[in-house]
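Late entry, written up from scratch paper. The run itself happened at the end of the previous shift, but nothing got recorded in the book at the time, so transcribing now.
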Amino acid sequence: MEMQQLLSMGFPDELAAQALAATGGKSTVKATEWILTHKSNAANTSTFQPKLDRFFHSSQSPTPPQSQSQEQIEEEEEDEEPSKRPRPSTHSAQHPQPQPPPPPPPQQNWPTFFLKTAEKKNANTHIHQPLYERLRPRTLDDVVGQDHLLAANSLLRSAIQRNRLPSILLWGPPGTGKTTIAKAIVKSSTATRYRFVSLSAVTSGVKDVRDAVDEARKLRLKSNQSTVLFVDEVHRFNKSQQDSFLPVIEDGSIVFVGATTENPSFHLITPLLSRCRVLTLNPLQPHHLALLLNRAVSDADKGLVQSAGVQVDVKEDAVDYISNNCDGDARVALNALEIAAVTAAARVQHGKQKEEGVEDLHTNEDYKVAVVSVDDAREALQCKHLAYDKAGEEHYNLISALHKSMRGSDANAGIYWLARMLEGGEEPLYIARRLIRFASEDVGLADPLALNQAVSCYQACHFLGMPECNVILAQCVAYLALAPKSVAVYRALGAAQKAVRESAGQNEGVPLHLRNAPTKLMKEIGYAKGYIYPPDNPSSTQTYLPPSLQGYKFLDWPDRIPYDGSEH
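Output as recorded:
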């Protein structure tokens, strides 16, 4: 970008390259000043200075005609018609007068318009990038909040130091640093052994993967340089697409680094998991987010100044509010801060900033300060995002929390998790069906009416729907949480199923005395023979299990009350 700007001003390629190399290559203004003020380039600058004057008019008097170089004069003459060109005199042709080059113009005489325009261009080079992208850490030392992965003796640190990076899967919530860590791994390597190639499963297919692998293999044969293939949102690849990674990981053609927000056990195939090491990233804590937000405020090159266009002062309570309301997502936090800063800058531009405890704004535009308050932060953040996916892992996490809270007789926790699910958009009938299951599994015989309550809850939710049925669900959750608990029936069924599967007599016939005998033939061969009718014989010791399971007890519950012979 800077090189193109210098070339468009008329500077030669070689001189422009020298100026950028001498000034660090990041500022067109500095490079131009170097060309115009450096004494060793004074002779060179004279050849194109008038060309620049055609575009930028200085406030000083124009350069005298004799200061133009012979090359410039010839260029102007070529533009004229031949009939209008002045015929040179014989004296001047025989004795040409050398034209000394003019001295380079001082820095303060350089056109003010050009300098301001260049400054604006430099200031706008990063505006198209969001704040979180501009502030993305470049090395692992700058990454915050994942100390369990980046400690001195961790897997990643040791692998990077030895240049033996394994294939890994980075699993964590959004905005926790998965892409950042993947890019920083290559830049933090002690040797230039790795080349970084990035793909996204959202926009890429098997062909893109194949092209990247072919290029990696060629590079490996040519320069023995390995390629780190980073695939973002890898869980979006289907089974056959994930299969395409297996052979190239196996033969070492690439070092595979995948990033996913979904549980790898649910969304990635087992062969891929066996070839990669799964590293789990944690949500960032509020003090981690506060550190990142303060970095954005203090960074003059890539921080809030580039977004707002003026100096920005962020109140401490605004930083605290954003840090505590972003669910550990650095991207959400930085986006909210950037929006709040732009809002405050707009107030400055219209002269409407009235912050308590802030001095009046200076009249000079260059010294105005945009103050970001907690109200700006609240307006930028709007409502808090609920992390809930009706088809993903969080769905199962929350219903498990609801079930276990009721099992632990904690009605408060049960109602809280119910509210989380409803606010996340869960179907009320799904919750009601789980409550019916809970009524038998965990309450059971301790309160047989619990099943009636759960079934009634399901019917009422079906009649009313959301949002009116929310209180019905809450009532049933509270009832089940406070009810006495018994898993006797649940365990008895499990024990019986185990006996059916594992006992030697699982296909053992039903004892004859327990069989029904509706026909004469069945009676003659012994069906129902020896059956004792309990109401007529309350003290009988008749057995009901197969002979191989005699005396086996599945239900841990008081024995039934025998018949006393009275009519009921």
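Residues 69 and 99 are 7 Å apart (CA to CA).
(Scratch paper discarded after transcription.)
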